[in-house]
Write a structure and sequence with these properties.
mainly alpha, about 0% strand, single chain, about 110 residues
């Protein structure tokens, strides 16, 4: 076993700690096999272990929320925070559209000026 494979296995043990307890054993076994076979496929075991870190973060986040829907960002997120009450969806969409147009107008002024 190469030193990079050993380091990658240590990274995997740390990565698996991010996962919920009921998923840890399954992913550790699967990812260990992947890291051990990485050099045979011409892949870096360390890069593969780093990739599992991102995957573990996504899995833990999806499991914590119970859904994999993407959270709104930008003008829509700001509008959702500012608007509430009855007819919130319509008012939020209107506010998001206004904020987006303002943002685009500002970007246009920067480009022209």
């Amino acid at each position: 076993m190469t030193s990079s494979t050993r380091v990658a296995l240590v990274v995997l043990r740390c990565t698996v700690a991010l996962l919920p307890r009921d998923l840890r054993a399954r992913y550790l076994e699967q990812w260990k096999a992947d890291v051990r076979g990485a050099t045979d496929l011409g892949m870096s075991p360390l890069r593969l272990a780093a990739g599992t870190l991102g995957a573990a973060a996504l899995i833990a986040n999806a499991n914590r929320k119970g859904t994999r829907t993407m959270q709104p960002i930008g003008p829509l997120a700001l509008a959702l925070r500012l608007v509430g009450g009855p007819h919130a969806r319509r008012r939020t969409a209107t506010l998001a559209a206004v904020l987006t147009l303002t943002l685009l107008a500002g970007a246009g002024l920067l480009i022209v000026g």
